[in-house]
Amino acid sequence: xxxxxYETLDVVLVGAGIMSATLAVLLKELDPGIKLxxxxxxxxxxxxxxxxxxxxxxGHAGLCELNYTPESADGSIDIKKSVTIxxxxxxxxxxxxxxxxxGSFGSPKSFITSVPHLSFVRGHEGIAYLKKRFQALxxxxxxxxxxxxxxxxxLAKWMPLMMPGRDPNExxxxxxxLGGTDVNFGAVTKHLLDHLAKQPxxxxxxxxxxxxxQRNPQGWRVSIKNQADxxxxxxxxxxxxxxxxxxxxxxxxxSGIPEGKGYGGFPVSGQWLRCDNPEVVKQHQAKVYSQAAVxxxxxxxxxxxxxxxxxxxxxxFGPYAGFSTKFLRHGSxxxxxxxxxxxxxxxxxxxxxxxxxxxxxxxKEVLQSEEQRLETLRGFYPEAKAEDWRxxxxxxxxxxxxxxxxxxxxxxxxxxLVAAExxxxxxxxxxxxxxxxxxxxxxxxxxxxxxxxxxxxxxxDKLNEIFPAMGKVLASDAERYREVQARSDELLQLTEKEAAxx
Length: 502
What we know:
Layout: E1 7-14, H1 18-30, E2 36-39, H2 80-102, E3 112-114, E4 117-122, H3 124-137, E5 147-149, H4 152-158, E6 172-177, E7 181-183, H5 185-197, E8 202-205, E9 208-216, E10 219-226, E11 232-242, H6 248-255, E12 264-275, H7 278-281, E13 287-289, E14 303-309, E15 312-322, H8 335-339, H9 345-354, H10 356-366, H11 370-378, E16 390-393, E17 397-404, E18 408-412, E19 415-419, E20 425-430, H12 438-449, H13 451-455, H14 457-466, H15 471-476, H16 478-491, H17 497-501
Helix pairs in contact: 1-5, 1-12, 2-16
Catalytic activity: (S)-malate + a quinone = a quinol + oxaloacetate
Keywords: FAD, Flavoprotein, Oxidoreductase, Tricarboxylic acid cycle
Cofactor: FAD
């Protein structure tokens, strides 16, 4: 292809993970005539953060994650974040249920499983906090089915693997919600990409690297190198989405948009202990989250999880944090140093200054021995045997560093959408609860970057068809919440949870 010979498309999406796949399918549903391409660096989609072994697979719904319900200075529990995440996950379920109902999305059994979500605490302080959290959450209709117990016989039924061998005098408590889920986000992504492949004017190209982003009056000229044969091509696109996980930050910097200035990335790698021994696995049917150790960051919240991947059930415990200068698991050690810019060096240095605790925590985690990792696991599962568990390396997470007027820079745990003022390009930065709330994030992107079309009757009608109720309605209207949840659960075959768990 000659240098000035290029193809014209409406939308280019970089990265074939759950974010780009979701956005591409949503856009094709809203406007079947849209022309789009997903560009993926690896040989197939869902290899990085969307891969089922690179994330916890928790259908994050705020049911068990204690870091989403912080205790305020006056001792009250703030449940706002849990309610938001819960209703956003219900939006994701509505989208998947809609695609299943259309008959173009494979079986829900391949990607979603009913798994109770439990919060587990040890010690009097932990119990006092959990009790207050339970009282605050159960006043909201989204958490009305939550149960609380300190009774050891009850706890032994809820988490049979975790009780034998425990000190009988240790104060412990737990909450349980039967309606939790385990989600294989890699399988969801593959279903989305397969669905997309059947649509006209939609394609996914793998082993392709974006080497240039040039703004012009028509949108963006995207330069692409084929990693397999070294050839180059160019696409003219009206809109570009940078949904490439850890690689989104360098691409945002490559675009040069002023809205991207000042952002930096702090990469954190993760490790898990994994157990495939069926005798152990069958004794634990739950995702059990606890409190992070004092001084450790929110992404270090320990949990013992049931995982269902490709029809096989395993247990996962962790995460154990690590540090690498790579922005992707398959990235380069130069990713972090090459991301430093005059505009973000101030915020990055401010974060380094203010986060000595985090640095110390990461160094301690990296230097942990196998025995020390097992010791942490035994806080959950006292009779754990070393031979049943093996260490798995998880995906890279790049936490956001952004400018802050007071401190110079802050480290942010979560996700952030950065878009150009004219809506022609957007990037998604950050990590958890990411995959669970992808649909809500992409709906926000559509509202911001396609403002005119979003107001058109065609798009409004289609969105109402896909989403019987949006998050704000679900958060305030108990009856609507239950209706919509029941419909989604039926289509996703998450009904009769008790029977499924027996």
